[in-house]
Write a structure and sequence with these properties.
The protein is mainly β and 477 residues long. The chain has helices at 2-30, 52-55, 403-406, and strands spanning 61-62, 78-79, 85-98, 109-124, 128-141, 148-161, 165-176, 221-233, 238-251, 259-271, 276-288, 295-309, 313-330, 333-349, 352-363, 372-384, 390-402, 413-426, 431-450, 453-470, 474-475. The chain has a single domain, classed as Porin. The protein has three helices and 21 strands. It has an 18-stranded antiparallel beta barrel. A two-stranded antiparallel ribbon has the order 1-2. The longest helix has 29 residues, at 2-30. The chain is globular. The relative contact order is 0.16.
Length: 477
């Protein structure tokens, strides 16, 4: 917990610096501004008839009006979409990787070839919108222990808007050979290689999806998160948000811990100005582990603050107490009280964007622990380097402590890092090329054994090359 509190304090300080810059720039324009009624709009995918650079210009973005106390992360804004469309494509990727702990008989490098088909869809009507991103395919490795496999990712959002109501149904499904931690989360494409054909769906916040930030959880896994969210405007300033989420994490290989997450969310939002909002959130969570007698209940109350400047800044801060109860006592304890919270920041740079996310609180344990106290942070930056080349860099860290550790019992804990960079450019009108390096490091308090090999630390290095082809968008209406 000490690690998480210190890290959260540092992130809040950094965020405050960015916020101060934005306040100074905009204070003169905002002094006489009055709050306006909370608008309601539909979350779109990318209009692929417009190039990415112009999409991100503030002049081409509509405000992101998602509720502060909702289940999704805030964004810099929503690109204008002139048509409903669908666009197919496919991609090829080659991954060169060093051997992880227990992965094979040798300690050398091996390669894996990926081939996938992609589809993005946007269908908009006067009061509703359907968004979909799909990617699915197979892979073959030169390492005999890895062999061939397949993967699928699907993200779907159906949204409805009326005068005072907003209703959303969101589903994120994945069948992947390994953890998504470090691979973009809702990036519906080959992990860590190339992006989806449309704009990535605004992702569910980490607090609402099964956590996968312990790398040692091995083998393919299914994960699915379904969420329903409704927001009602009580007045021109205030609104109430209700959401329910159900998530599962299932492993194909034995030795991992499957999990079910059930979350219920109630929030109140109040607009102080056109760009500043405060809120209060109550969230109940139930974490179950099929075949394991332990079950964990969770109650969270967070105060929240948000600030949005379209095309420039999207900030959300939340924090408060968290009360956790245990079906099976840990030591002599049947409950505990800790601090929980999170931060999300998107900040527009010159021809680029900086993003930061932080979360601290109870998670399902990533398939390794039956519940965990988790502190997780990620930082990413992307920038258009030249007219054709774009670059990105990213870093992430997660610390997972068993619930026994949190109650004063000497037990297992895991630290995980990812770090990397990438370059990409278009090749003609319909093909994109990408190159990336990513490193993964994990340490543990006690030795971890896989396939007869035991260690308290290991590192994996990966180099990837990818090509993605997309057809001309097919206009629906």
């Amino acid at each position: 917990m000490k690690h998480g509190v210190k890290l959260l304090a540092g992130l809040v300080a950094v965020t405050a610096l960015y916020l101060g810059v934005c306040v100074e720039r905009t204070q003169a324009q905002e002094e006489d501004a009055k709050p306006i009624p909370a608008a309601r709009t539909i979350l779109p995918t990318l209009d692929t008839t417009v190039d990415d650079t112009s999409q991100q210009s503030p002049d081409n973005l509509k405000p992101d009006v998602e509720p502060l106390t909702g289940v999704q992360n805030p964004t810099l804004g929503i690109p204008e979409s002139r048509h409903s469309y669908w666009v197919p494509g496919f991609q090829y990727g080659n991954l060169i990787q060093s051997q992880p702990l227990g992965a094979g008989p040798s300690s050398g490098w091996y390669t894996t070839n990926y081939l996938a088909g992609n589809l993005s869809l946007l269908d908009t009507w006067s009061h509703s919108q359907l968004s979909l991103n799909f990617s699915g395919g197979g892979s073959y490795s030169t390492d005999s222990s890895q062999g061939g496999s397949y993967f699928t990712e699907l993200g779907v959002m159906q949204a409805f808007t009326w005068k005072s109501w907003q209703l959303q149904f969101i589903d994120q499904f994945g069948y992947l050979p390994e953890s998504q931690f470090g691979c973009g989360g809702t990036n519906l494409a080959i992990p860590c290689l190339v992006g989806s054909l449309g704009l990535q769906l605004p992702g569910l916040s980490r607090s609402y999806v099964p956590n996968q930030s312990i790398f040692i959880a091995g083998g393919p896994r299914y994960t699915n998160t379904f969420s329903t969210q409704a927001t009602y405007d009580l007045s021109s300033r205030g609104s109430i948000t209700v959401a329910g989420t159900y998530g599962i994490l299932r492993f194909s290989d034995p030795g991992n811990i499957n999990g079910n997450d059930v979350l219920a969310n109630l929030g109140y939002n109040y607009a102080l100005t056109k760009v500043d909002t405060i809120g209060v959130i109550y969230r109940f969570g139930a974490y179950q582990f099929p075949g394991n007698p332990q079950a964990v209940g969770d109650h969270v109350i967070n105060l929240a603050y948000g600030r949005k400047l379209t095309g420039r800044l999207a900030l959300r801060l939340a924090g408060g107490p968290e009360v956790t109860t245990f079906r099976v006592p840990i030591g002599s304890a049947t409950n505990r009280v800790i601090a929980s919270g999170g931060a999300s920041l998107s900040y527009a740079l010159y021809r680029g964007e900086l993003s930061l996310q932080y979360n601290q609180g109870l998670t399902g344990g990533s398939g390794v622990l039956a519940g965990a106290n988790t502190s997780q942070v990620s930082l990413g930056v992307n920038r258009q380097l030249t007219r054709l080349w774009n670059g990105n860099a990213n870093f992430g860290f997660a610390r997972n402590e068993s619930l026994a550790t949190a109650n004063g019992v000497n037990s297992q804990s895991y630290n995980a890092w990812f770090y990397g960079f990438g370059l990409g450019r278009p090749v003609g009108r319909h093909v994109d090329f990408s190159f990336a390096y990513t490193g993964y490091t994990q340490t543990s308090a006690l030795p971890t054994c896989v396939a007869g090999k035991c260690s308290t630390s290991y590192t994996v290095n990966r180099i990837s090359l990818g090509f993605q082809w997309r057809a001309q968008p097919q206009v629906i209406h």
